[in-house]
Amino acid sequence: MHKTSAWPLAGAYAVLIVYASLYPFTGWRDQEIAPWEFLVAHWPKYWTWFDVVANVLGYIPLGFLLALSFMRRAQVRYFARHPNVAATAIAFLAGTALSLCMETLQNYLPSRVASNVDLGLNAAGTLVGAVLACVLERAGAIAHWSRFRDRWFISEARGALVLLALWPPALLFPAAVPLGLGQVLERLENGLAEWLQATPFLEWMPIREVELQPLVPAAELLCVALGAFIPCLLGYTVLRSVGRRALFAVGTVVLGVAVTALSAALSWGPSHAWAWLSLPVRMGLLFGLLLALLMLAVPRRGCAAMLLIALVVHLSVLNQAPASAYFSDTLQAWEQGRFIRFNGLAQWLGWLWPYAVLVYVLLRVSRPDRTPTMPA
């Protein structure tokens, strides 16, 4: 029996909701009013349909994942007479409690306004997601997915599946290099220098003798190729057969192109959705797919070892390039515009996803493989 991926996905999504709800985490103050007073406030004078839809849609995945997680809990199935209904109710209460906590804490943030309407919309979104999970479970769709997972993936695939599910959202945040996740060195250095300003520890930081230079086309090609190659290798470590590996590789590259185009459309407008698809990027995508096809018959542990090498090379080359001024303007638009809530969902994923994969693979190769190492 495999372990469900819904639990870690629900936890990750809850953390992202907390980030999006309390961003930018500055200016905390006490308004000297009861934190629960917003519960009896009147209907807000100013509201938009964008806020209404965002509050509902933002909690639907949480309700769905929580309900699915509780459905898989042995305690719920043992003690509840109707486990699916019980799981739906528990998921609804958990999502509503999370929303209540976020709205209460927003009382202390100057850039946020606590709202009973937002609480109701969040609760409605949680309920819709939980009911959807219950309906799909009753219809047999969840069981069908379980059978599909058993046919395609090994039993210890939960960690890799969670990371693969987070890869498309990570690509939605605009990257300086297409599929180039994990470019954090420049921002990390700047943030650390600002934090250590006016302290003696600032002198301990290494000072660059030369400024970071933009990537040459060959380096950009390599970063794009490895950006497409890495999720393919991650899937190879848990897929069961060579044929399924081939389908997965093609689908992964196509998905990466589609999500990057969507990110460009959100950032610069629909007319510029494909502006990023330059000659080095196109060659990099083809090269990445070719590398994935060459690795089809390699054992899983060999794929994991190659994945470690690809991650180290990718992050090393990518973090030697600065973000362009135009790219910085794009980030500012995301971080200060109407994508401010979505910023928490994609920005941190784009920064941390490859490092999470690195930790996962290191833990994976340190354990003995209990399944056949060669794909069928």
From TrEMBL:
Where does the UniProt annotation place the signal sequence? none
Domain VanZ-like: from-to ranges: 20-136
Q: What Pfam families does the record tag this protein with?
A: VanZ
Spell out where the chain crosses the membrane: 7-26, 46-71, 83-100, 120-139, 160-181, 215-239, 246-268, 274-298, 305-325, 345-363
Q: List the keywords (alphabetical).
A: Membrane, Transmembrane, Transmembrane helix
Question: Which InterPro entries does UniProt cross-reference here?
Answer: VanZ-like
Can you say what this protein is called?
VanZ family protein
